[in-house]
Amino acid sequence: MEPRTARYRELRAQLGLTKAELARTAGRSVGSIERYGHSGASAVVPPQEVIERLEAALLSRLKQIALAAGHDLRPRAAA
After folding, report:
1. What is the count of structural domains for the chain?
2. What is the largest CA-CA distance in the chain?
3. Has residue 34 got a pLDDT over 80?
4. Model pLDDT for residues 51-66, shown as the tens digit of each residue
5. Number of C-alpha atoms within 13 angstroms, CB side, residue 8?
6. Domain range for residue 26?
7. Residue 79: pLDDT above 70?
8. Which of 50, 47, 63 lies closest to 22, judged by CA?
9. Fewer CB near the terminus (10 Å): N or C of the chain?
10. In a domain, 79, yes or no
11. Mean confidence (pLDDT) of the chain
């Protein structure tokens, strides 16, 4: 499997978004999203831009979870 396809599948599973939410996050149409990451004859390898947008969405979600749990995300001073 192509590395970007594997990363796309991984991010999609971690984010748990609907196809419409995924399309909006990736800046693509639902039709495009449906063609990414499967193994059929019409499969398309997701563009790097889509991977980067999904990674940014996951990072944002993780930061929100950490902040909601009371974690301080400011960089710490070097010792």
Report:
1. 1
2. 55
3. yes
4. 999 999 999 999 999 9
5. 26
6. 3-68
7. no
8. 50
9. C
10. no
11. 90
Residue at 17 is within a domain: yes
Is 78 contained in some domain?
no
Flag whether the pTM goes above 0.85: no
Which residue is listed with tokens 């969405």? Answer: 57
37 closest CA partner among 75, 74, 1: 1
Secondary structure tally for the chain: helices H, strands E: 4, 0
Task: Please tell me which residue, 14 or 78, carries the higher pLDDT value.
Answer: 14
Angle 33-43-15 (CA atoms, 0-180°, nearest 5)?
Answer: 35
Nearest CA among 37, 57, 59, 56 for reference residue 46: 37
Instruction: Residue 22: give its domain's CATH number.
Output: 1.10.260
Distance, in Å, from the CA atom of 25 to the CA atom of 28, rounded to the nearest integer, reads 8
- 50 inside domain: yes
